[in-house]
Design brief:
The complex is a heterodimer of chains A (about 230) and B (about 500). With about 230 residues, chain A is of the alpha/beta class. Chain A folds into two domains: about 10-125, 3-Layer(aba) Sandwich (Rossmann fold), CATH 3.40.50.2300; about 135-230, Arc Repressor Mutant, subunit A. In chain A, about 40% of the residues lie in helices and about 20% in strands. Chain A has eight helices and twelve strands. With about 500 residues, chain B is α+β, with helices and mostly antiparallel strands. Chain B has four domains: about 1-130, no CATH class; about 140-265, Beta-Lactamase, CATH 3.30.450.40; about 275-330; about 350-500, 2-Layer Sandwich (Heat Shock Protein 90). Helices cover about 55% and strands about 15% of the residues of chain B. In chain B, the strands form three sheets. Chain B has a six-stranded antiparallel beta sheet with strand order 3-2-1-6-5-4. In chain B, strand 4 and strand 5 (about 215-220) form a beta hairpin. The radius of gyration of chain B is 46 Å and the shape is rod-shaped. The interface of A and B includes residues 15, 24, 88, 206 and 223 of A.
Chain lengths: ~230, ~500
């Protein structure tokens, strides 16, 4: 069993779910701490060295959303939200408030571990990510200095809009970006929430980078929430 | 009618007698005055008094006027020289006669007018008090037919007839029967021969009332719809005076107000109850979904951990796997029942947004691939991006359900494909497999709730029989169509659903 240094905080009020998350974290060699309340989460975060937080939105004392907002005041640590299925809107709000990723109950341990690994990788790159001149995911590479995109080492012609969109994803590898957030970043604040332009732009970008746009390898759709650039 | 005529005759006779008696009395008094030697002016005054009394005691102008003429003649006959003739010696008397006649005329006319006014005031007061009585009683009414009954009773007693009232229901349709006053304190319900005929008449009405064979029908207009019809028997309606018609209209208006008020109170109550129910239901749904999902997540996760801990050859591995499988099945059952409850309520708000068909297909396919990694799913979408107004989450659910079905009936090495294309006014999605197909006997029932195929191997995964019902409900809510059939180009099944391309108003939230 490999030993990991990153300490993970589990905020979950259901004992069974907590137990199995603890078990799988132990299997992976992660040190962890647990708490069942939002209040407990905040006090642990202040007193302990925590690198990543798994947060259930439905907590007994107050809403998990509040925890995200408070934590984001002082820390950029990855937050993975765990939510019940009905809360699509809350998911988007949680992501817009600063959560990095979300999982829907019931989820498998494999899925959870994959998400944690992605988030941590993201953490190690963070800080340096703005200075990176070039980033790659699989066969897809972006050169920020030259404003160029390469697919399997061949230069790919993209429109400025497509480049901007792709650059936005590369700056947030593995992170779920909500539709609202992307529209704001790409088209500006005053654009509203018209999804059609983004869907069309996404379709044209996918036709350039994906073998089959309906079975994407790079930019995955999270229906009802947004998109994510996968680095698996 | 004959009694009415004889009564009138009697009245005329009485008034004539009064007139004659008054003039005679005045003449008698005049005679005495002349004997005593009073001046003639006094006699004229006495005659005027008699005319005033006549006008006071009789009805109408005619007796007063007649009295004035007769009095002038009598004065001339008895008290001016030459006596006992209608001629006069002194021409100045002619002026006396003229002034006397005119004065008598005016006096009698004024008196009659005062009497007429008093009578009208009395009538008005009766109207007001009966209207007040009606409104007063209407406030105590407990329902629409009670209002109708009170109105009928009041109008019957005032008009002295057997009035009736036919109510219309909430949808503006006449009821099957109407209330009629039989006698004081007794009402009966009579069947309406042809309600739609009445409705037709009333709706096309251009005058204040509809003339019928038995009844004259007055419509009771509410704020938005016709609330009912007030029926006055023909013979009463024909002889109604203007004042009575006015009173009737006021009463109908009062009844309309009361009915309207009752209706809106009723609607408010209903709305309140519905809101209450909806809140209760959504609270329940939320509680169920949360309280069932959380332990199921725990069970599934724990079972997964157990599987992870055990060697595959260990019999405990398959036990843990069994727990996981059953929990998973239970979970999908819970999800299905929850979505179906929401869909069948018709309360599920479909938020249509413009979505790319390929993204929704991609989402569904990747979801299925995670669950069934051993299957290969072919996907084809048009080169030109297909943007369709839809609730992406729900359509993804439809695709997942259809793919899930396809996988259940198809071995892993056979083809399963999903495609999307654009028709004239709709987007067409198809999920096709090369599996065992649908038995002909099952075909008509596939969209029925809890219907599962009987044929199938013993170890086949149990179906819940809700998947396709949910698909149908979702597609219907979108204004699209869905159908399933066996493929003609070989073995297998194909499900096709369409979604309208225009953003329709139906079920859409802006």
């Amino acid at each position: 069993m490999e030993k990991r240094n990153e300490q993970i905080l589990i905020v979950e009020d259901d004992l069974q779910i907590r137990n199995f998350i603890c078990y799988s974290l132990k299997q992976e060699g992660f040190p962890y701490m647990t708490t069942g309340t939002a209040q407990g989460a905040l006090s642990t975060l202040v007193s302990e060295q925590i690198d990543l937080m798994l947060l259930d939105l439905g907590l007994p004392d107050f809403d998990g959303m509040e925890v995200i907002k408070k934590v984001r005041d002082w820390s950029e640590m990855p937050i993975i939200v765990v939510s019940a299925r009905d809360q699509d809107k809350e998911k988007a709000v949680a992501l817009d408030s600063g959560a990095d990723d979300y999982l829907t109950k019931p989820f498998s341990a494999t899925e959870l571990m994959a998400r944690i690994r992605v988030a941590l990788r993201h953490l190690h790159k963070a800080g340096g990510i703005r200075q990176q001149t070039s980033l790659a995911v699989g066969g897809l590479r972006i050169d920020f200095d030259k404003h160029l995109v390469y697919l399997d080492d061949a230069e790919l012609h993209t429109t400025p809009m497509e480049y901007n969109l792709l650059a936005l994803f590369f700056r947030n590898i593995g992170k779920v970006l909500t539709t609202t957030y992307i529209i704001r970043e790409i088209y500006g604040v005053g654009y509203g929430t018209d999804t059609q332009a983004l869907r069309t732009l996404m379709a044209s970008l996918r036709r350039k980078i994906e073998k089959n746009p309906a079975k994407p390898r790079y930019i995955l759709t999270e229906i009802g929430v947004g998109y994510r650039l996968s680095d698996e | 009618m004959t009694t009415l005529k004889s009564k009138e005759h009697k009245n005329v006779f009485r008034y004539v007698m009064i007139t004659v008696a008054m003039i005679a009395a005045a003449t008698g008094v005049g005679w005495i005055f002349r004997m005593i030697g009073f001046p003639e002016a006094n006699i004229v005054i006495v005659y005027l008094l008699s005319i005033l009394m006549t006008a006071r005691l009789t009805r109408g102008y005619i007796y007063g006027i007649a009295a004035s003429v007769v009095a002038t003649c009598a004065f001339n006959y008895f008290f001016t020289a030459p006596y006992y003739t209608l001629s006069v010696n002194d021409p100045s008397y002619l002026i006396t006669f003229a002034i006397m006649t005119v004065t008598a005329f005016i006096t009698s006319a004024l008196t009659s007018k005062v009497k007429q006014n008093a009578l009208e005031a009395q009538e008005k007061e009766a109207e007001t008090s009966s209207l007040f009585q009606l409104t007063n009683r209407l406030t105590d009414a407990i329902d629409i037919s009670d209002i109708a009954s009170i109105t009928t009773e009041t109008i019957s007693s005032i008009m002295n007839c057997r009035a009736a009232c036919l109510c219309f229901d909430e949808n503006g349709q006449p009821e099957q029967s109407f209330i009629q006053q039989q006698s004081a304190g007794k009402q009966v319900r009579r069947k309406v021969d042809d309600p739609s005929e009445i409705r037709h008449h009333i709706e096309g009405l251009r005058t204040a009332f509809d003339v019928g064979e038995e009844f004259y029908d007055w419509p009771i207009y509410g704020r938005e719809t016709i609330l009912g019809v007030l029926r006055i028997p023909r013979e009463t309606a024909v002889s109604m005076s203007e004042a009575q018609k006015r009173l009737l209209r006021s009463m109908i208006e009062s009844a309309a107000l009361a009915m309207d008020r009752f209706r809106s109170a009723q609607e408010q109550q209903k709305f309140k109850e519905e809101t209450e129910q909806e809140r209760y239901r959504s609270n329940l749904l939320r509680a169920i979904s949360h309280d069932l999902r959380t332990p199921l997540s725990g069970i599934m996760g724990t079972a997964e951990m157990l599987m992870d801990m055990t060697d595959r050859a260990d019999p405990r591995y398959s036990l843990a796997q069994g727990i996981h499988k059953d929990a998973d099945w239970l979970h999908s059952l819970v999800e299905n029942i929850l979505s179906l409850t929401r869909l069948q309520d018709g309360r599920l708000t479909i938020t249509k947004q413009l979505e790319a068909a390929e993204e929704v297909i991609g989402g569904a396919v990747s979801h299925i691939m995670k669950r069934y990694p051993e299957y290969e799913i072919m996907v084809s979408v048009p080169e030109e991006v297909l943007i369709v107004p839809m609730d992406a989450k729900l359509i993804e659910q439809v695709l997942i359900n259809l793919l899930d079905n396809a996988i259940k009936h198809t071995p892993p090495d056979r083809e399963i494909s999903v495609s999307a294309s654009e028709d004239e006014h709709s987007a067409k999605f198809s999920v096709a497999d090369r599996g065992c197909g649908i038995a002909v006997s099952d075909l008509p029932n596939i969209f029925q709730m809890f219907y599962t195929t009987r044929s199938g191997e013993a170890d086949a995964q149990r179906g819940v029989g809700l998947g396709l019902t949910i698909c149908e409900a979702i597609i219907k809510a979108h204004g699209g169509t869905i159908e399933g059939h066996n493929r003609t180009d070989g073995q297998g099944t194909e499900f096709i659903f369409t979604l309208p391309m225009e953003v329709s108003k139906h079920g859409e939230k802006k």
